[in-house]
Amino acid sequence: MIHQIRNSMKYVASKNQKAFMADLKCVYKAATLNAAESALDELEAKWGDKYPMVIKSWRSKWPTLSAYFKYPEYVRKPIYTTNAVEAVHRQFRN
Question: Per the CB 3.0–4.6 Å rule, which of 11, 44, 76, 92 could disulfide with 48?
Answer without folding.
Answer: 44
